[in-house]
C-alpha cells in the first residue's frame, strides 16, 4: 500500500534489481539489442531464463512488474520471440528529457551587496535574497498557509538533484544510469531545476518551491546528456513503488513503449500519482486543438499531462508557443522563464513544459498533505487503492479557466483553490 506518512529511510527492498547496462551494445563480444521480454503466463522467471538461454543478459528484474529488461544478441532476437516461454518482446529505446527551449542566467544582488547569481564559492550566506518565481504567485501558492507538503514523498525521475545545494534538501535517492546506484547527484542541471520548482526551501535566500517541505527523492534515470533507456525509466518507477513514494514527477518524453505504459498503469493502480510534461513540440496558438504532438508518457491516460503557460503579459492567449498540445492535456501550468535552483549552487530561468509539470507536482503535494488523514488509517496504510485518483480529481476540479479552449485541459492549476477544495471534501 502507498503510505502518506513520511519515511525516515526508504531503500529499495528488492534483491532482484540489477545494475543497469545503459548504452551497452556488446556483451561478451556479441552485438546485443536492448529489449523488454514478457514471459508466457506473465512469468518473469520464464522471461529471464529465455534471455539467458539465448545468450542474453538480464539488466533488470523488476519487483513490481512481471517482465524483464535484457540485452539479447541480434542473431537471437527471433529465437527469443518464438520461444514458448516468451509471450512477446519489445524494443527498449532511448528516451530523453523534455529539453527546455531556453536556459537563462539570472543576475541579482546577493545578500552581501555584490553582483552575482551564485552562492557556490561564497557559501550559503552569499546566496541572493529569496524571491518567489512569477509562477508561484500566478497559481496562488502564496495564498496557501495551511499546507507545505510535509510528509509527502516526491520522486523526481530526471538527471538527478544536486545534493548539497543550499536551497534544496534531498532525503535519499538512487541512480540507474551507472553501476553506482548511490551516486544520484546531478551533473546536467535539469533535475535540480525541476526539484526546486517543487520544493526549494523556504528560507532567506534563492527561491522557494510550491511545496517546500515535501520530501524530495532523487531518482536518476537520465545521464549527463539527458538521455537514458526506457528500461531505466521503468526501474525508476519500480523503485518509487517499492519505496512508498506517493508522487512521481517526470519531465521526460519519447516514443510510445507498451512495457512502460504497463508499468505506469501498475503504478497508478497501486495509488501513485504520475505527473508528466506534455513536450516542447510547439503549437499554433489558435485554439483549434487539432494538434496532437504530445510526447509519451504524457499521452498515457493514467498520468497528469501538463502544458506550458506564458507570463500573462507575454502572450494574448497565455499559452506558451513551445508547448506541445493534444487531447491528453490535463492541466496548464507556468512554463516560461521559470526561476529555480540549478547545479553549481546556482539559480537559472528555464522555459519548457519540463518547468510546467513540477508546478502541478508541487500543488499535488500540498493537496496530498491536506487529504492525508482521510487517505490513511492509524497505521499509515492507505484506506483506498486509489488515493491518487482523489488528488487528481481535486486538481482538475479546482483548476482556473484562462484560455477557454481544450488546449488547457481542465485549466490552469491553482494551489489555493485545490487546497480549499481538499478541505471542503474533508468537512
From TrEMBL:
The keyword Protease applies. Residues 100-135 are annotated as: Disordered. PROSITE patterns: SUBTILASE (PS51892), SUBTILASE_ASP (PS00136), SUBTILASE_HIS (PS00137), SUBTILASE_SER (PS00138), TAT (PS51318). Pfam families: Peptidase_S8 (PF00082). SUPFAM superfamilies: Protease propeptides/inhibitors (SSF54897), Subtilisin-like (SSF52743). GO terms for biological process: proteolysis. CDD domains: Peptidases_S8_Subtilisin_subset. The keyword Protease applies. Keywords: Hydrolase, Metal-binding, Protease, Serine protease. It comes from the Archaea. One of its GO terms (molecular function) is serine-type endopeptidase activity. The active site is at 158 (charge relay system), 190 (charge relay system), 354 (charge relay system). This is Subtilase family protein. It comes from Natrinema hispanicum. The lineage of its organism: Archaea, Methanobacteriati, Methanobacteriota, Stenosarchaea group, Halobacteria.
Amino acid at each position: 500500500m502507498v503510505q502518506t506518512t513520511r519515511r525516515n529511510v526508504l531503500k529499495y527492498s528488492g534483491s532482484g534489481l540489477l545494475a543497469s547496462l545503459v548504452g551497452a551494445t556488446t556483451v561478451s563480444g556479441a552485438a546485443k539489442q536492448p529489449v523488454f521480454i514478457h514471459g508466457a503466463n506473465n512469468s518473469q522467471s520464464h522471461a529471464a531464463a529465455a534471455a539467458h538461454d539465448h545468450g542474453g543478459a538480464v539488466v533488470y528484474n523488476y519487483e513490481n512488474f512481471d517482465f524483464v529488461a535484457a540485452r539479447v544478441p541480434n542473431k537471437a532476437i527471433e529465437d527469443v520471440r518464438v520461444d514458448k516461454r516468451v509471450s512477446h518482446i519489445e524494443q527498449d529505446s532511448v528516451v530523453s528529457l523534455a529539453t527546455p527551449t531556453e536556459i537563462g542566467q539570472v543576475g541579482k544582488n546577493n545578500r552581501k551587496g555584490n553582483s552575482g547569481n551564485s552562492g557556490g564559492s561564497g557559501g550559503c550566506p552569499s546566496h541572493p535574497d529569496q524571491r518567489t518565481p512569477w509562477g508561484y504567485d500566478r497559481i496562488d501558492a502564496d495564498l496557501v498557509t495551511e499546507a507545505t507538503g510535509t510528509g509527502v514523498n516526491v520522486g523526481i525521475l530526471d538527471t538527478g538533484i544536486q545534493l548539497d545545494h543550499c536551497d534544496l534538501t534531498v532525503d535519499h535517492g538512487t541512480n540507474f544510469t551507472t553501476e553506482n546506484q548511490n551516486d544520484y547527484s546531478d551533473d546536467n542541471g535539469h533535475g535540480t531545476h525541476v526539484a526546486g520548482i517543487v520544493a526549494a526551501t523556504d528560507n532567506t535566500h534563492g527561491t522557494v518551491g510550491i511545496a517546500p517541505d515535501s520530501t524530495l527523492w532523487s531518482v536518476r534515470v537520465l545521464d549527463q546528456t539527458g538521455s537514458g533507456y526506457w528500461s531505466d525509466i521503468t526501474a525508476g518507477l519500480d523503485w518509487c513503488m517499492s519505496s512508498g513514494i506517493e508522487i512521481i514527477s517526470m519531465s521526460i518524453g519519447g516514443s510510445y513503449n507498451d512495457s512502460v505504459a504497463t508499468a505506469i498503469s501498475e503504478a497508478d493502480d497501486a495509488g501513485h500519482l504520475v505527473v508528466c510534461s506534455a513536450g516542447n513540440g510547439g503549437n499554433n496558438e489558435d485554439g483549434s486543438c487539432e494538434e496532437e504532438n504530445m510526447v509519451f508518457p504524457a499521452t498515457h491516460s493514467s498520468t497528469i499531462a501538463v502544458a506550458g503557460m506564458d507570463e500573462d503579459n507575454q502572450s494574448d492567449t497565455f499559452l506558451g508557443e513551445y508547448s506541445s498540445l493534444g487531447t491528453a492535456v490535463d492541466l496548464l501550468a507556468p512554463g516560461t522563464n521559470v526561476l529555480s535552483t540549478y547545479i553549481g549552487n546556482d539559480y537559472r530561468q528555464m522555459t519548457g513544459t519540463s518547468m510546467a509539470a513540477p508546478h502541478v507536482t508541487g500543488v499535488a503535494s500540498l493537496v496530498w498533505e491536506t487529504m492525508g488523514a482521510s487517505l490513511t488509517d492509524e497505521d499509515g496504510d492507505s484506506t483506498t487503492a486509489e488515493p491518487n485518483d482523489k488528488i487528481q480529481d481535486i486538481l482538475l476540479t479546482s483548476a482556473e479557466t484562462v484560455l477557454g479552449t481544450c488546449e488547457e485541459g481542465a485549466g490552469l492549476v491553482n494551489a489555493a483553490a485545490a487546497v480549499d477544495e481538499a478541505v471542503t471534501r474533508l468537512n
